[in-house]
Amino acid sequence: MADLAFDAETPTSAHQTALKCLSDGVNAVLPDRIVRDAVSLNDNTLSVAEATYDLSAFDRILVIGGGKAGDGVADALETVLGDRIDGGAVVTPEPTSGDRIDRLPGAHPVPSETGVESAARIVDLLSETDDRTLVLAVVTGGASAVIPTPADGISLADLQTTTDALLRSGAHIGELNAVRKHLSTLKGGGLARLAAPATVIGLVFSDVVGNDLSVIASGPTAPDETTYDDALSVLDRYGLDVPESVRSRLERGARGELSETPMADDPVFDRVTNHVLADTHTALSAARETAREHGYDSIVLSARVRGEAREAAKTHVAVAEEVAATGDPLDPPAVILTGGECTVTVRGDGDGGPNLEYCLSAARELDTDAVVAAIDSDGEDGGTTVAGAIVDSRTVDDASDESEAAASLAENDSLSFLRDRKCLIRTGPTGTNVNDLRVAIVDDLDGRDSNGNA
User: Fold this and answer.
1) Final residue before a domain boundary, out of 257, 278, 299
2) Residue 48 CB: number of other CB atoms within 10 A?
3) What is the largest CA-CA distance in the chain?
4) DSSP string of 20-32?
5) How many alpha carbons fall within 13 Å on the CB side of residue 423?
6) CA-to-CA distance for 18 and 335, rounded, in angstroms?
7) pLDDT value at 453 more than 70
């Protein structure tokens, strides 16, 4: 597979290196490459990561699931397994076509009627499984939205309203999914419950800090330790006004009138194994290697950064400034990499996403000659059509810029400010999703460029 193209203004070698680190990070987690390395077939033995499965024990192999990387994973599985696949369906925002696995449409980040119809195909396939069925469950970021299966009494409109309110509130992904898992039949171990007694192999691309299987794609193949009470607490914590049907269902569940999502001791998981094939650290490791190849000392500071985007940016900037001033934690020329999932509490009516707010906040803080860039690995930051941005100490250059930048952040309108200054990074949908990637570049104090030239 050819590398994805990244489009951005790169006026200096530091900008070029920053963009190259990010692009190599994303290209390293494209489904074709990950599945090719992790999944193989030798006669009747299927290998997934370090595990092996005897295919002679199964009469049928089905592939189901989806998310933003779903289409690419399905392509790769068809290449590896060919006609050993008996059928399947994956739901993804931009489906193509396949030989053995149906590709079906779904919407992100707010679920759609089309997604409900597509999800029904997965439920139908799972209804046909038995103990001689092997289910390859494709679990990738974005599946929570693109595969909606509203629970009894919950309409799609109710689910859409609740999802939108949660996204705007600044709730982190675990909180958001605690609610969604209790409003759905596939989430929170629901897929494993419907598939039982089949053998289920989860092929997971993680877009969640810490790779919590119960949170990735709302944990369709994982035990769920959250409860209806937890879901109600999220609504109350953020003061969310949700449809009456949603609150009523959660309150009924909290009173014990509805079954909880399956927990770790539930027998539906006896024949379920999940394999995390790629995550944020996979991408950051590739980016770190690129930095070293370009003559920079490099460090992955953390793959677990979360919280409000504009605040998290200040820490990354502070580390870059420390590198420039003191050589701690490493000497320049240096590349400081982070990843994770930041959030935005929406109070204004502008356009932007966590990575755009991150970069605009960083640009306001920078008082040293450094470059900072951040992207969402899926190529779409928040509700925008750009991946993120790349900024430096000149992006916010004077008092007028500072005033405009502050106003843009107040209105959650980082996109406009950064677009006007040609700071945007465009990739288009990448076909993968392992969370946000960020880089700060600090060049050598004696003025050498990234190739060591004076």
Assistant:
1) 278
2) 18
3) 72
4) HHHHHHHHTT-HH
5) 30
6) 8
7) no
Q: Are residues 220 and 295 in the same domain?
A: no
Helices 13-27, 280-293: axis angle to 10 degrees equals 140
Runs of H (alpha helix) within 111-227:
113-126, 143-146, 156-169, 173-181, 190-195
Task: State whether 325 and 254 are in the same domain.
Answer: no
Residue 62 lies in a domain: yes
**336-375: b (≥16 Cβ within 10 Å) or e:** bbbbbbbbbebeeebbbbbbbbbbbbbbbbbebbbbbbbb
Which pLDDT belongs to residue 383? Answer: 87
Cα-to-chain-centroid distance, residue 381 = 11
Domain count, the chain: 2
Q: Does one domain contain both 189 and 300?
A: no
pTM: 0.91
Q: Among 253, 278, 303, where does a domain finish?
A: 278
Let me know if residue 328 belongs to a domain: yes
* DSSP E strand boundaries for 26-114: 39-42, 45-48, 51-54, 60-66, 87-92, 102-105
Structure confidence by residue, pLDDT tens digits, 129-174: 999 999 999 999 999 999 999 999 999 999 999 999 998 898 988 9
- Provide DSSP, 367-414: -SSEEEEEEETTS--TTSSS-EEEEETTSS-SHHHHHHHHHHHHTT-H
Count CA atoms closer than 13 A to 256's CA, side-chain side. Answer: 0
- Which residues are 119's β-sheet partners? none
Q: Which residues contact 37 (CB under 8 A, 6 or more apart)?
A: none
Q: If residue 136 lies in a helix (H) or strand (E), which one and from where to where?
A: strand 133-140
Sequence-ordered strand ranges (E) for 181-236: 199-205
Helix (H) or strand (E) holding 129: none
Burial class (CB in 10 A: 0-12, 13-18, 19+), 290: buried
Mind listing the pLDDT tens digit for each residue in 42-74?
999 999 999 999 999 999 999 999 999 999 999
Asked if the peptide bond before residue 93 counts as cis, ω within 30 degrees of 0, the response is no
**Nearest C-alpha neighbor of 281 from the set 191, 332, 207, 343:** 207
Asked whether residue 208 is assigned to any structural domain, the reply reads: yes
Cβ proximity of 85 and 101 under 8 Å: yes
Cβ 145 vs Cβ 115: under 8 Å: yes
| Statement: residue 452 has pLDDT above 60 | no
- Torsion angle (degrees, nearest 10) of CA 304, 434, 223, 243: 90
